[in-house]
Amino acid sequence: MAQQHATTETATEEQPTPILVQMSIFAAILFVASLISPLFPASLPVPTPVIGIVILYTLLATHILKLRNVEKFADFMISLIAFLFVPAGVQLAASLDILKAQGLQITAVVLIATIVMLVLVSYTAVGLIWLRQHLFHRSNAVEQESTL
Predict the structure, then answer these.
(1) What is the mean pLDDT of residues 41-52?
(2) What values do phi and psi take at 139, rounded to 5?
(3) How high does pLDDT run on average in the chain?
(4) How many CB atoms lie within 10 A of CB 69?
(5) Res. 8 pLDDT band, cuts 50 70 90
(6) Which of the 8 DSSP states describes residue 136?
(7) What pLDDT shows up at residue 93?
(8) Over the Cα atoms of the chain, what is R_g?
(9) Backbone angles phi and psi of 136, in degrees to 5
(10) For the chain, what percentages of helix, strand and coil (3-state, to nearest 5) are there?
């Protein structure tokens, strides 16, 4: 009887959240981000979606929000990302004369910015790993459960 109860409890824990609830979670996070965004100074405008991503990451990293609570809707939104870049591609094709005149400079800036971003992200990751090891005394080894 106890094993059956444990199996039922595990099955209900792993069920994904209904899609409307997931959409509501994303909407609430975006709403909070829209309230925070105007608080930044005009010299450092931070877009609402960027603040929303930081809030979502913080909620997931602190386990306040479980991945199963947002995973289905997030997967759906990621599947739309190619469709969202179509207008940018059309605008790029419309601006071919600018690319002919300044294409080399634009390419150089994009490459340099990408390299700088990759270096900064890698140093940030190393720093966060160091903080985790020294402040929280946790290792980075992935814990594996035994399947007995």
Answers:
(1) 90
(2) -90, 165
(3) 84
(4) 18
(5) low
(6) S
(7) 78
(8) 22
(9) -105, -5
(10) 75, 0, 25
